[in-house]
């Protein structure tokens, strides 16, 4: 059965969304982590709004990064274990599209909910009002970058039995530019500067990641499976 | 010499940690063939099938598909094969019907998915998450792919695992129908197939070969 490239994308997007829907508890754990840790921050540091406002944007970004990274580990692990990754690799379709479908599904269940609840965390961490819009915009673009980069790491470590730590080491350097410009966008917004500048760079990073990461993931998956 | 064989293996060698796992000088598969790969555990049956599906790559030797190397006509070849391995690729949290739907990936429509599942004895189980099914039923979900695919070459790695007697007969009939309509089957199993004209290919691991000589 010959299938066009967009079919591969849709089939895997739909399948992975369905899988997350069936395991809602597991799928929501990055979001729960995100919310839980940020409620602890005022308790651990200080409830003083003025001091919290200074660190709010940074904390939200760091937590978003960690939440995405923790969930990236499972991107290909399940498929590797039950043999569906092998089926994907020997299917005649272009590998890039199913991979992109999987990453999109990952962003829809991690990055997008994080972006949507982030104003709530902003409120808890006394984020200055001018920071909300830049925070949501930068999180929307940035978490998509994080999902794509995390998937490269997940593909690299998929054949390792305990790849969690390895994954963190591999993707952390790749995550740094994202958090630098993501954090800068929020800070620029708070300081009343033109925050669209760093946001545009984040957008450029996302464009590059969408173009290049699926290729890298596809190549790495082929390499790790043929051993 | 008529048409080139569907599949022809020439001097295929595969090593793992400097030990030869596969050493296959000449093996062919024509339309209408059922080839049973036999051998003791660890003799390389799965490895041979994985080499044939391109999930593994051999260091030496060629696999020809209709006379052309499979590296040259990768798309045509991969469109024409169906592999069902030990790991069944069945997602346990999805229902049988949903599993079949994404396996076909180009959207076969739920009616033909349900039909395929029903003809494998899963009527009434198509909308239940697969983790609630027994091991044999899960296996049948994976095997239902045989009925919805139009691939000519089937690679079946131990397809009878966990399948009951009726299921074995059902699967044998599927294979018979498939080869009579011009397909070919490579199956690795320890069971004796109740089919006519099955060719046997005995696998002896290289280490075993050495022990015998």
TrEMBL record, chain A:
Transmembrane segment boundaries: 24-45, 51-72, 107-127, 139-160, 167-188, 200-221
Stored InterPro entries: Cyt_c_biogenesis_CcmB, Cyt_c_CcmB_bac
Gene Ontology molecular function, alphabetical: heme transmembrane transporter activity
Main location: membrane
Protein location: Cell inner membrane
One BP term from GO: cytochrome c biosynthetic process
Record's keyword terms, sorted: Cell inner membrane, Cell membrane, Cytochrome c-type biogenesis, Membrane, Transmembrane, Transmembrane helix, Transport
Membrane topology according to the record: Multi-pass membrane protein
Stored Pfam families: CcmB
Record's function text: Required for the export of heme to the periplasm for the biogenesis of c-type cytochromes.
Record family assignment: Belongs to the CcmB/CycW/HelB family.
Official protein name in the record: Heme exporter protein B
Organism: SAR92 bacterium BACL26 MAG-121220-bin70
């Amino acid at each position: 059965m010959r299938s066009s490239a967009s079919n591969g994308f849709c089939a895997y997007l739909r399948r992975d969304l369905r899988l997350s829907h069936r395991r809602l508890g597991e799928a929501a754990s990055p979001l729960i982590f995100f919310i839980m840790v940020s409620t602890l921050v005022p308790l651990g540091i200080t409830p003083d709004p003025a001091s919290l406002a200074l660190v709010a944007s940074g904390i939200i970004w760091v937590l978003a990064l960690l939440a995405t990274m923790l969930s990236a580990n499972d991107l290909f692990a399940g498929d590797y274990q039950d043999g569906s990754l092998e089926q994907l690799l020997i299917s005649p379709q272009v590998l890039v599209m199913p991979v992109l479908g999987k990453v999109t599904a990952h962003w829809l269940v991690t990055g997008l909910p994080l972006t949507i609840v982030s104003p709530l965390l902003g409120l808890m961490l006394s984020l200055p009002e001018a920071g909300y819009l830049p925070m949501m915009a930068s999180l929307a673009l940035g978490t998509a970058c994080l999902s794509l980069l995390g998937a490269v790491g997940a593909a690299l470590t998929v054949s390792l039995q305990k790849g969690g730590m390895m994954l963190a080491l591999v993707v952390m350097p790749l995550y740094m530019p994202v958090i630098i410009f993501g954090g800068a966008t929020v800070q620029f917004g708070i300081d009343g500067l033109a925050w669209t500048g760093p946001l545009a760079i984040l957008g450029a990073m996302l464009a590059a990641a969408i173009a290049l990461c699926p290729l890298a993931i596809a190549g790495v998956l082929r390499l790790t499976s043929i051993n | 010499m008529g048409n080139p064989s569907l599949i022809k293996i020439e001097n295929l060698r595969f090593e793992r940690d400097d030990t030869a796992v596969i050493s296959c000088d000449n093996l062919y598969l024509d339309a209408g063939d059922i080839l049973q790969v036999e051998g003791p555990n660890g003799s390389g049956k799965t490895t041979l099938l994985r080499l044939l599906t391109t999930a593994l790559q051999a260091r030496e030797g060629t696999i020809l598909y209709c006379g052309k190397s499979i590296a040259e006509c990768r798309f045509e070849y991969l469109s024409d094969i169906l592999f069902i391995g030990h790991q069944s690729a069945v997602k346990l949290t999805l229902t049988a019907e949903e599993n079949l739907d994404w396996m076909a990936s180009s959207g076969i429509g739920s009616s033909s998915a349900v039909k395929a599942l029903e003809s494998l004895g899963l009527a009434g189980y198509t909308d239940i998450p697969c983790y609630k099914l027994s091991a044999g039923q899960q296996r049948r979900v994976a095997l239902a792919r045989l009925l919805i695919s139009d691939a000519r070459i089937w690679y079946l790695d131990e397809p009878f695992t966990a399948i009951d007697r009726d299921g074995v007969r059902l699967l044998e009939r599927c294979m018979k129908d498939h080869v009579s309509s011009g397909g070919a089957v490579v199956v690795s199993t320890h069971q004796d197939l109740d089919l006519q004209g099955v060719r046997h290919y005995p696998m002896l691991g290289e280490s075993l070969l050495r022990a015998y000589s």
